[in-house]
Amino acid sequence: MERATAASRGAWRRWVWTRGRVPAALAVLTAGLLAFHRAVPNSMGRVGSLLETFLPWLGLVIVVLFGWALLRRSATALVALLLPTAAWTHLFGGLRLPVGEAGPYDLVVVQHNVSDENTDPAGTARALADAGPDLIALQELVTPALAVYEKTLAPDYPYHAVRGTVGLWSKHPLTDARLLDIGPQGITEPWRRGLRTVAHTPHGEIAAYVAHLPSVRVGAGGLASSWRDESAGLLGRAVAAEPLETVILLGDLNGTVDDRGLAPLTSRMNVAQRGFAFSFPAALPLARIDQVMARSATVPHIRTLPATGSDHLPVAARIALR
C-alpha cells in the first residue's frame, strides 16, 4: 500500500510538471516579445511598430496565461510565467510607482488634440484651464473654433502663438514663434502642423515645440506609418538643432514612446517617468499617442484629464526643470 501511495505521488508530481506545455511555451514567447521587441522586424507591414504600440497590453496576455496555468494545474506554466512577468515589470512597472512631491522649479503643461469636429470648444478650453497648467498645447485648431479658444483662454493665458492648426497658450510671455517644416514629401497639400516658440518662464527661457504628426492606419497590410516616421525624423532634427538648452515638446505624435518610429525624438528627449495616460481613442483609450517630452528637464508624471468634445483625452504632465 505504501509503495502504491508513493508511486501515485510520484506520478502526480510528474503530471503537474509535464502538463501545460502550451501555456508555458506561450509564456516564453510573450517574454521574448517583451524583452526583444526591437528585434521584431519592421520591414513588412511595420509589424515591430504595431507590436510596440500595444506593448503594455501584453500584461493581459500574462493574466490570461496565468488563469490557464491554474486551470491546467501546471507547475511548468506557472514557473514559465515568471519570465514575462519580470519582463513586463522591468518595462512598465515603474510607471505605476507613486509620484513624489512637486519641486520648486516645476511647470505643469497640458497637451490636447481638440479635434476639428469638436462641437464645444468653449467647454473644452475651460476644462483645460481648470487644470491650472502653465502651458496648453492644442492641435486641430480650425476656424471658427480658434476664435473661441482665444477668447475663452485669454483671461488666464494672455500669451499665445498659433501656426496653422497648432497653437500654444501660456501664462508666461512667448517670443520668436515660427512655423516648423515637418511635412513629409509625399503630402502635397499645405502642411502647417509644427510650431516653435520661446516661453519666458520665471525659471528661464524654454524652447516650446508643438507638433501634430501624420496619422497612422492599421490595415490588412499592417501599420501604415511611413509619413509619421518621416515627420518624426524632421522634428527630431529640429530639436537637435535647437540652440536653447531646455526644450519641451508637446504634441499628438500618433505613436507611443515605445514605438521605434518615434526614435528620432525619444533618443533625444526624456519621456514620462510615471503614468500610462492612455489618451486615444477617448471612448476606450488603448494607447498614449499624445506626448510630453523634455530635454535638459524631466517629466516625472503624466496623467489624463476628463474627456472633452474630442476623440482624444487631454493629458497633463509635470516638468521638472534642472
Layout of secondary structure:
Elements lengths: L1 H17 L2 H15 L11 H7 L4 H15 L2 H6 L1 H11 L13 E8 L7 H10 L4 E5 L5 H9 L5 E5 L2 E5 L3 E6 L14 E8 L2 E9 L4 E3 L2 E3 L1 H15 L6 E6 L10 H4 L23 E6 L1 E8 L10 E7 L1
Parallel strand pairs: 1-2, 7-10
Antiparallel strand pairs: 1-13, 2-4, 3-4, 5-6, 6-7, 8-9, 10-11, 12-13
Helix pairs in contact: 2-4, 2-6, 7-8
Task: Characterise the protein shown here.
The chain is of the alpha+beta class. It has helices spanning 2-18, 21-35, 47-53, 58-72, 75-80, 82-92, 121-130, 145-153, 226-240, 263-266; strands at residues 106-113, 135-139, 159-163, 166-170, 174-179, 194-201, 204-212, 217-219, 222-224, 247-252, 290-295, 297-304, 315-321. The chain has a 6-stranded mixed beta sheet, with no helix packed on it. Strands 5-6-7-10-11 form a 5-stranded mixed beta sheet, with no helix packed on it. A two-stranded antiparallel ribbon has the order 8-9. A hairpin with a 2-residue loop joins strand 8 (217-219) and strand 9 (222-224). The longest helix is centred in the N-terminal third of the chain and has 17 residues, at 2-18.
